[in-house]
Amino acid sequence: MAAKKISYPASDSQALTKHHLARFAKRAGLIRACILWLAFLTCAHASDAPSLRPSPSLHHGFFDRQNSALIIAGFALRAGDVWTTKRFLERGGRERVMPEALVQNTTAFAAYSAGAAAGTVGLAWLAHRARHHRIERAILWVHVGFMAGLVVNNEMYVRRLPHGD
Question: 84-108, pLDDT tens digit by residue?
């Protein structure tokens, strides 16, 4: 068995760049796989249906029990995101995703979060109007799941920082 020849980068910055590109490529592959899996799940039911019309059992009002619960949970988790982000910043943390000017202004950050949640509800409503009820539910479930993960992540960062008292 022949030994593999290892080439070393000319500088540390090249090694860092190659390392980050390799990690990104792995994550991008995982993201592509997840997107393909979701597309498969969405289309699998459509291929089994004998006609293109949605079945009458799938029709529901937009503000039915499940959607109402998902919308309320989405707005509550958005409020939790604002609260945990403010606690994180008060303890000396730095926001890395959103602009500092936005997260430092509590009113602007809360308005942004409420607008983003309303935009998600609007997108789900458009899917409902187009009779894509499964996509409508998926939009709301993904929003709630993403925001729950974000709030838990923020809280973990808050607990790692020392108290400001």
Answer: 999 999 988 888 889 989 999 999 9
Among the residue ranges 4-13, 64-73, 80-89, the one predicted with the least confidence is: 4-13
Written as six digits, the tokens of 10 are 């000319």
**Residue 151: pLDDT over 80:** yes
Specify the long-range contacts of residues 89-92, CB closer than 8 Å, at least 24 apart. 90/164, 91/158, 91/161, 91/162, 91/163, 91/164, 92/161, 92/162, 92/164
| DSSP output for 41-68 | HHHHHHHH-SSSSPPGGG---TTSHHHH
Please name the amino acid found at residue 142. V
Tell whether 161 is covered by a domain. Answer: yes
Q: Is residue 30 part of a domain?
A: no
Question: How many Å apart are CA 165 and CA 162, to the nearest integer?
Answer: 9
Residue 134 lies in a domain: yes
What would the two tokens of residue 122 be? 């609007």
Supply the range of the domain harboring residue 132: 62-165
Domain count, the chain: 1
Residue 145 maps to a domain? yes
